[in-house]
Amino acid sequence: MAKEKKIFFCTECGYESAKWMGQCPGCKGWNTFSEEKVITGKSGKVKPAERVEAKKITEVSAEEEVRLMTHIEELDRVLGGGIVRGSLVLIGGDPGIGKSTLLLQMCSRLVADKVKVLYVSGEESLSQIMMRGKRLNAYDENMLLLCDNDLDNVEAKIEKYDSEVVIIDSIQTMAAADIDNAPGTVTQVREVTSRLLKLAKTHNTAIFIVGHVTKDGQVAGPRTLEHMVDSVLYFEGDESEGVRLLRAVKNRFGSTNEIGVFNMTGEGLEEVRNPSQMFLNGRPEDVPGSVVIATMEGTRSVLVELQALVADTNFNMPRRTSVGVDYNRVNLLIAVLEKRAGMYLGNYDCYVNIAGGLKISDPASDLGVAMAITSSFKNRAIPSSTAIIGEIGLAGEIRGVTSASRRVTEAEKMGFTRMIVPLSNRSKDLDNAGIEVVYVKNISDAIHALFG
Ligand code: TYD
Ligand code: MG
Fold first, then answer.
1. Spacing, Cα 80 to ligand 1 middle (Å)
2. What is the number of the ligand closest to the CA of 99?
3. pLDDT tens, position by position, 261-298
4. pTM over 0.85
5. Is the shortest distance between the CB of 95 and ligand 1 below 6 Å?
6. Phi-psi region of 279 (alpha: psi -120 to 50; beta: other; left: phi over 0)
7. Averaged pLDDT, 311-326
């Protein structure tokens, strides 16, 4: 028998509780609980006839994974090589970052390939989308738009039009009629997602759902959403600047460390095929504190400028700030510089920044951070034609990095003439590289190589 019950849900993470609580035990957020009605006891049991048997792994036949290409290379790569039919993809990002723009552009490319596309919007009116479509060159009679937030209708229309790719913009505006909670509540978001998941699998339709992001960078609504979908992509960037990064945080059909780089222009999103060039654009030449590092973003090496500023402190405690690199890592590297290179930074503030809004977690950036700090501390510039890679250990040793030759090749391609590389990465390839490769074993070697 179906029974109605009241449960409190955390609107941030979906934690369930029978009573209201001030602080969520799940995500530690304050004042996030809201009361929602749920129907329990519905018969969701599988009937005996539908029970499936286990199979030997060797007897499982491989179903061919069919992919649809969007021909937006940056997007295809993040998806793991195009859209997988029947997959459910969640795209999260701050409002106004360009999610709708990206998906509309994707649809126009698919339509050009005769793929049946349905764009469902619960946020904008038909004429708004049409006007944007015109501006983005996504104005094609085969492009179907639907403005509705009723899930039953959306499901029916997907069947009716036999859509191959569907956009749901956004999950927070969709509602299943048989649940009387408001759209955007935990119960609704969960129900809508699970029904879309079922539809995607049974109908072999690829569904992209747009999800808004809360202030601390989580997709609003239950975190269970991320477990239900096949892939989770985040679209991020600084709104004031044009650079937009598409990042996969979960992908059942590919690697998660690929990024797609775009530039927001008056004509929509433009792909950035050569991110190094963009990130190095406008870089100051021969200024103390500025270095270029080669980081890996997925399978691709990207050169970025890293800046440090070391200045006399006006406080009892020196300030350390980092943007784009891990704060604790910067502190660790400062400690290593003090202990292993005799650079006393206790009376200096240190600021470290990655230009262009990129966030780097690649350990190979360590040496770059340390050398940028050293350069600013000594007030001596590192030649702008030098790039640096290397991980630093607590003993001051420089450890090898992954894909060293790819990084060196990228630096060579971008016109650098000299590269500081860990000795343990030494190889024939690097010895024969088109640029001068300087191998270093420890932090003093590196300082010696750069500052004499
Ligand atoms: P939008 O795709 O609506 O963001 P989201 O769906 O993530 O909320 O993007 C809106 C922003 O993008 C808006 O501030 C204007 C900007 N924009 C451009 O600069 N150029 C364009 O061609 C378009 C369509 C949008
Ligand atoms: Mg939008």
1. 25
2. 1
3. 999 998 899 999 888 888 888 889 889 999 999 999 87
4. no
5. yes
6. alpha
7. 92
Cα separation, 174 vs 156, in Å, equals 14
Listed ranges 33-37, 229-233, 388-392; the one with the highest mean pLDDT: 388-392
Residue whose Cα lies nearest atom 24 of ligand 1: it is 268
Separation of alpha carbons 426 and 192, rounded Å: 54
Strand 88-93 and strand 231-237: the pairing is parallel
Whole-angstrom Cα distance, residue 441 to residue 422?
6
- Tens of pLDDT along 41-85? 555 555 566 778 888 888 887 777 789 999 999 999 999 999 999
- Terminal CA-CA length for the chain: 81
* Residue 264 near ligand 1, beta carbon < 6 Å: yes
Helix, strand or coil for residue 232?
A: strand
Asked if residue 214 has pLDDT above 80, the reply is no
Question: Do 178 and 189 meet the contact criterion of CB atoms below 8 Å apart?
Answer: no
- Round to whole Å and give the CA distance between 45 and 48: 9
> What distance in Å separates the CA atoms of residue 229 and residue 88, rounded to the nearest whole number?
5
Q: How far is the CA of 276 from the centre of ligand 1 (A)?
A: 24
Host H or E run for residue 106: helix 99-112
Compute, in angstroms, the gap from residue 78 CA to the centroid of ligand 2: 20
Instruction: Please work out whether the CB of residue 96 comes within 6 Å of at least one atom of ligand 1.
Output: yes
How open is the CA angle 301-232-17, to the nearest 5 degrees? 140
Buried-state track 296-329, b at ≥16 Cβ within 10 A, e below 16? bbbebbbbbbbbbbbeeeeeeebebebebbbeeb
On the question of pLDDT at 213 being above 80, the answer is no
Q: Looking at residue 42, what is its pLDDT?
A: 55
* Residue nearest to ligand 1 atom 15, measured at CA: 96
CA–centroid distance, 132 to ligand 1, in Å, is 9
Residue 225 pLDDT greater than 90, yes or no: no
Q: Does the beta carbon of 93 lie inside 6 Å of ligand 1?
A: yes
Q: In a 3-state reduction of DSSP, which class is residue 405?
A: helix
CB-based contact 118:100 (threshold 8 Å): no
To test the pocket of ligand 1, the residue of 101, 103, 108 to mutate (highest count of ligand atoms within 8 Å of its CB) is 101
Highest mean pLDDT among 2-11, 161-170, 248-257: 161-170
